Every structure is written in structure tokens, then in C-alpha cells.
Amino acid sequence: MAELRLETTAIPGLVVLHLPVHEDSRGWFKENWQREKMVGLGLPDFGPVQNNMSFNAHRGATRGIHTEPWDKFVSVATGRVFAAWVDMREGETFGATHHVEVGPDVAVFVPRGVGNSYQALEDGTVYSYLVNDHWRPGQAYPALNLADESAAIPWPIPLAEAEISEKDLANPVLADVTPMAPKKT
Amino acid sequence: MAELRLETTAIPGLVVLHLPVHEDSRGWFKENWQREKMVGLGLPDFGPVQNNMSFNAHRGATRGIHTEPWDKFVSVATGRVFAAWVDMREGETFGATHHVEVGPDVAVFVPRGVGNSYQALEDGTVYSYLVNDHWRPGQAYPALNLADESAAIPWPIPLAEAEISEKDLANPVLADVTPMAPKKT
Ligand SMILES: Cc1cn([C@H]2C[C@H](O)[C@@H](COP(=O)(O)OP(=O)(O)O[C@H]3OC[C@@H](O)[C@H](O)[C@H]3O)O2)c(=O)[nH]c1=O
Ligand SMILES: Cc1cn([C@H]2C[C@H](O)[C@@H](COP(=O)(O)OP(=O)(O)O[C@H]3OC[C@@H](O)[C@H](O)[C@H]3O)O2)c(=O)[nH]c1=O
């Protein structure tokens, strides 16, 4: 079984985690998030206040690209996703992208200001994530179109065949996104 | 869609939560844990430091009855479980039980000292929970036999047909369990 391991990416602060998964005759068990071990390896002590889960009935369901003003620790409870990120923060790395396939043995820390998205690769995929601020209804945050040509995310399932919300179909292209300013401290 | 609602039980501090589940063409979305709303309704502000997930390949996988010295916020990411609890704390309610079926629309707060267990009712069930202290390898905590006759949990799938770990098969009966003392403050 693999050791817990953290990997940095081209997007500053976006960290890919490789999780040990203990298999036995019943199935498997994983520490999906473990504050002490992960902070010890360099993960920010992000202090989650909310755990969201989304169920995707069919392969191809695609959500994003969403930039909320909080950090996200994203993972998969069952199934697999193709996950992609676009840096939407003011600065030199605005527009930088990263993508990775996420099964139950991977988790990703997505810092505030980085656009988050995923496409379900299997029917019945459940995506589970922790965030460190509370979502409130009626607030709009910067979002980017899944089909943006400058980000050019290589979606495994063509977007024309994907299940996408009305809201996400209406998201603007990168040139029309207002970069996210750093958090006031 | 149901409103978020908390329900008390015969075990002091054991709280059953009914969660709103937003359905749409992609699948569903839920706030599985939401600190502000839930604390506002009376849930302890328990401060999770670890998120565990267990995958149960087959209907009948049964785990428990485990009492660790920390609180648990238990839920299901996909599938269904029959979940049961036995109060293992010193005092008047030692031995009190509660059980409920848990699908994606239910979560349960299990206070420190209450034995936790579940039986998967569907193949591929994923159980996800948050805890407020870190598990350490090699530590043994009070556990109760799933077949204990005084607790008499009405498992939907007979234990003789269930997938159970070697460790759980060796757990003692209630008369041989040392009640858990209150946390030193
Ligand atoms: C994010 C969020 C949503 N909701 C509700 C609003 C809708 O009724 C429903 C689905 O919301 P969407 O915004 O359509 O969710 P989705 O497209 O899945 O995007 C979410 O998942 C990917 C994440 O990047 C992003 O934070 C989040 O918006 O859930 C809540 O009740 N609480 C929440 O925290
Ligand atoms: C609880 C726990 C376990 N593990 C490892 C040890 C084993 O290799 C594997 C499975 O552990 P078990 O103790 O067999 O898990 P399980 O029988 O599923 O019980 C767990 O789920 C139900 C919970 O009530 C209980 O806290 C927990 O022990 O995972 C970890 O790495 N971290 C943990 O936090």
C-alpha cells in the first residue's frame, strides 16, 4: 500500500495528495483527510466548516469551473472523475491550468481563487469536499466556461455529450473573468 | 425538499440529522455537514480533524460495535446502511441502544463513549464520517460484540451471513465491557 504523499503542481498552492487505501474482505478504508499527518507534510491547516457531497448519476456529468472565496479539499467517495483547475487569482499565474484523474486514492487541496471543476468518468460517482467557509444562497462568484478555449481543458467526454447545468453553460470565457483579489487580512 | 432537522434519541447526545438533498438532472447535492446551521440547531461544535471513508463491496458487510474516545459525525455517500449504537458510558444509560436506517439524507452525531456500528444494505455502500481526534495505530478501545444478547440489535441481515472482520468477531459481550469514563477536563 502506498504511503501518504503530497505533490505540488504548476498552480501555486494546488496540492495533489496520494492516499493510502486499506483493502480487506469487506471493501476498503481510507483516512480521506487527516489534519495532523497532512499538515505535517505541508498542507495548510485550513479548518473546514462544511462537507459537501455531489452524486453524479451518469458518466459525463460535468460541473464547474467555480471559484469561491474559500479553500476546498476535494475527493471521491466512489467512482472516478477527471478534475481540472484554472488559476483565477490576480497575478502571474492567472490562467494556469492543472488536471488529474481522481479516484478514491487521490485528494486535492484547491486554494481560494483557483477555479474548480470535474467530469464524472463513471455512473454513480460521488464527489465529496470540505470547505473552510460557509456557502450562502444568492451570492455569485467568478466562474469560467467549461469550454473556454484559452484554458483548453482536455475533457475525456466531449462537452456536447456531457450533462451540464444551465448555470454552468452561461459562464463567461477567461477574458471576461475578473481576477480574484487576495484575501484582505 | 425537507428542511434540515435535528432529532434527539434515547441515548443522551446521540442526534439524528435529516439533511436536505437537492436533486437535478446531474444527480444530487447535499451539505453533509454545515457547521453554522447545525450548531445553530443545537449540534455540538465538535471540531473535526479527520474524515474517514469505508467502502463496503457487498450488502451485509457489518462493522462495530466501536467506542473510541472521540465524537463521530456519521453519514453515507452512496448506498444505505442499518446503523446501531450502544451507550458504553458509565452511568444510568449504559447499555441503552438506538438504531436507524441511514441513506444519503440522514447523518448522525455520535458522542464520545457511544458504541458505533453499521451493516451495509446495498452493494457498494460508502460510509463517510468526521471525527474530532486522531486515530493512532495499535491503540485498543472498548468494543462490543455485534451479537451481544443484551443489546439485541435487530440486524436486517443475519450475522451468520454477514461479512465481519476477525477483530470484530472477537469483541466481548456487554457484561465484559469496562464502561467509558467521562473525559478529563
Ligand atoms: C455549493 C452549494 C450549493 N447548494 C445548493 C444550490 C443548488 O440547489 C444545489 C447545487 O448547487 P450548484 O451550484 O449547481 O452545485 P455544483 O454545480 O455541483 O457546484 C458545486 O460543486 C463544485 C464546486 O466547485 C462548487 O463549489 C459548487 O458550486 O445545491 C447548497 O445548498 N450548498 C452549497 O454549499
Ligand atoms: C479507524 C481507522 C482505521 N485505519 C486502518 C486500520 C485498518 O488497516 C483499516 C480498517 O480499520 P478497522 O478498525 O478494521 O475499521 P472498521 O472496522 O471499519 O471500523 C471503523 O469504522 C467504524 C467506526 O466506528 C470505527 O471508528 C472505525 O474503527 O484502516 C486507519 O488507518 N485510520 C483510522 O482512523
From TrEMBL, chains A, B:
Marked site: Participates in a stacking interaction with the thymidine ring of dTDP-4-oxo-6-deoxyglucose: W135
Annotated catalytic residues: H66 (proton acceptor), Y129 (proton donor)
Family: Belongs to the dTDP-4-dehydrorhamnose 3,5-epimerase family. Belongs to the dTDP-4-dehydrorhamnose reductase family.
Task of the protein: Catalyzes the reduction of dTDP-6-deoxy-L-lyxo-4-hexulose to yield dTDP-L-rhamnose.
Protein's recorded name: dTDP-4-dehydrorhamnose reductase
Organism name: Nocardioides agri
